[in-house]
Amino acid sequence: MRVKVKFFTLFRLEYGLSELNLELPEEDITIKDLLKIIDIKTGKNISKKLFTDDKKVKTSAIVLVNGKNIFHIRGLDTNIRDGDVISLFPPGGGG
Questions:
Q1: Fewer C-beta within 10 Å: the chain N or C terminus?
Q2: Domain contains 94
Q3: Which residues of the chain fall below pLDDT 70?
Q4: Based on the structure, what is the number of domains in the chain?
């Protein structure tokens, strides 16, 4: 199964990543699984920026699967399918 992961804003600046094309061995992978795989493959702790301490997506972070927010699907349990595009936006700040 192949998926594309796109990184935006501070992820691009902090980690030097704009996108990854991943070949995943399994068909039954969730967003939670994918984020663990990304951490391992990149050697970065990207999931730390997206998760709260109790392993939920931070409300100010955005995770999209094919342009749809995972909050409106199944959250971190959203299944990934062949050809999906996952977009990761870290929590924003401002003032």
A1: C
A2: no
A3: 93-95
A4: 1
> pTM of this prediction?
0.88
Q: Which sign does the torsion angle of CA 29, 18, 46, 75 carry?
A: negative
- pLDDT number for residue 9: 87
Contact 4, 19 (CB under 8 A): yes
Length reported for the chain: 95
> pLDDT at position 93, please?
57
Rounded Cα distance, 78 and 74, in Å: 5
Residue 27 has a CB neighbour count (10 Å cut-off) of 10
| CATH code of the domain covering residue 81 | 3.10.20.30
Q: Which domain holds residue 54?
A: 2-89
CA angle, 77 as apex, 93 and 16 as ends, to 5°? 45
Q: How many CB atoms lie within 10 A of CB 88?
A: 25
